[in-house]
Every structure is written in C-alpha cells, then in structure tokens.
C-alpha cells in the first residue's frame, strides 16, 4: 500500500485507470481532491502548508478551504488504495514451510522456490507475499503456541491487506468480539474504519471487500486523515474492543506507527487500555527509524515504564522482523518463535 508521503502521487496515477474503467464517482472525487491541491497552493504563499501531505491537505479542506467534502475524500482514498493493491508491486519473502496434510491447498500467490534434502529430511521453500507471512505468524499458522493464546490487531490502516492474507490461509477473523473471542479467531480493531466497512445509520456492516461496498451503492466508513478527527458513535464499539485488547495483552508490539505528537487519541487509548493491565510483559516498537519513534513514545509513556526493560525498541521494519531466525531473532524475542526459517527477502 502507498505510504502517506507518496499518497497524492498514487492518487494521480489512479485517475487515468478509473476513467478508463468508467468509475466516474471515484474519478470525480480524485479530480476534486487534486483541484483542492491546486487551490491550496495559493494559501501556502501566506501560511505554511505541506501540500503533498494528505493530512494537511484534508485538514485545509475540512476548514472550508476547498470544494471537497468527506464523501469525496473517502472515495478518493479508497480508490487509490484499491488501485495500489491491483497495480502495485507486492513484496515477497522466501519462507520454509512445513505443509500441513489433508486437503490444505497452496494459497494464491505462493510459488515453490526450492527443495532441499539433508539425509532423510526434506525442506521446501516458497516465495510468498510478505503480508501472508505476517498473517501466518500472527494467526499461529507458523508457530508453536499455547491453545490459550489470543491474537489481536489494532490498526489505523484503512486497507484490508491483512484480512486478505488471513483468508488466503483459511484463517478466521472478527471485528467485534474482543471481549469473548472464539478459539483461533484473530480479533481486528480498525480504529479509523476500513475500505470494506459499509456505512450504516447506526454503525457499519463488514463485507468482503471495497468493491462489494461500491456494488451496493454505499460509501465505506472511514475517518479522513485530518488534524481534527471526528471519530463519531459509529466507531465507539471498535475503540472499546481496542481498549479491551490492550487491557489483557501480555505483549504489545507497535509496528510501522510513527507516534506523531499530534495524535492524542493514541495516547489516551494506551492509557485506557493499560491502566488495569496486570499481565503486560513487554511493549515492543518495530521501525526502521526506531530512534525517532522511541523518543516520541517516551514523551507519551510514564518515565518509569519508558526506561524499564519492558519497553524494547527493535531497529527493523516488518520484512526484517519476518526475516529473522526463529531461535535467535526478533520473532523469538516477541514470543513468536516460528517453527519455520524465514531467511531472506526476494
């Protein structure tokens, strides 16, 4: 998926494709967002604005600075994410997999890469999407774990890449039952909404994907990235789920979140979720630029906790995390000692 810093360029790339496919509502929404970018240029001559930042651009719009509304912004974001999913380069990883028996089929997008034999042992390696590797490790597909383990994800992302990875692996997930999760089900709390959540008068209905929302004539439930996010009642249960997840977590692992100083919601979510947590062992931060994230988190966390051995920064990205050895690498450190070896990126 496109990173926020590059999002407007991906939006520009998506527009010709939407026009060719006669997706007029989405094309018009993106056109209005790009017109907003043009209008914002005149404002930036007097007020400092980072015009390629979608948060600043949409904050400018929400203050009455342009012709867009929330529906335009949401359609433009979803159309860009869908375009990037279909057209983008999907990073892959080389993974040794011990295939289960029975009728388990190789997921779509996986390819055998290598077979090694050592004595009587046979080792099979596959090239698989990084998101599938992440989904597999998260859901327990590739791990030795206790039956009591509960897997939960709290995310600000709008896209449904993780859900697609879980479906390819035949794993179930749930958006609503963090208080009483079914065995083996991954609980997901999407704090700013999702491309596959159809907005309803009193909340949302989760459907298979973004196209399913569009085919029903709906608009996804998303909270646009602005400086003044109005979470509204529709997401109240989602935030309650996230708080419950944090309150019972033994390990909290923050991956790819920059912890901006402007995001007060994150600070209060941590406070609400961890206030009564008596089980927390460690809080990990995983980021290639972990020093900056660590510094910002130290401004949020209590000084006694931030300086303790429970707070552990890991200087790597998601792919680097997955590419570590099961017995000595980062995956073992965060309680996900895999039964497989994840040796290298493609």
Question: In words, what does this structure look like?
Answer:
The protein has 346 residues and is of the alpha/beta class. The protein folds into 2 domains: 4-87, no CATH class; 130-335, no CATH class. The protein has 13 helices and 13 strands. The strands form 4 sheets. The protein has a 4-stranded antiparallel β-sheet with strand order 2-3-1-13. It has a 3-stranded parallel β-sheet with strand order 4-6-5, with helices on one face. Strand 10 (251-255), helix 9 and strand 11 form a beta-alpha-beta unit. The longest helix has 20 residues, at 24-43. The radius of gyration is 21 Å and the shape is globular. The model is unreliable at 339-346 (pLDDT under 50).
Taking all Cα atoms into account, the compactness measure Rg is 21 Å
Strand count, sense and barrel status of the largest sheet are: 4 strands, antiparallel
**Could you state the oligomeric state of the chains shown?**
single chain
The number of distinct structural domains comes to 2
Q: Which whole number gives the mean pLDDT?
A: 81
Please state the structural category. Answer: alpha/beta
Instruction: Tell me what portion of residues adopts beta-strand conformation.
Output: 15-25%
User: What form results from the Cα inertia axes?
Assistant: globular
The portion of residues assigned to helices is 25-40%
Number of strands: 13
Instruction: List low-pLDDT spans.
Output: 339-346
- Helix run count: 13
H and E order: HHHHEEEHEHEEEEHEHEHEHHEHHE
Distance between the termini: 18 Å
Numbering strands along the chain, what is their spatial order in the largest sheet?
2-3-1-13
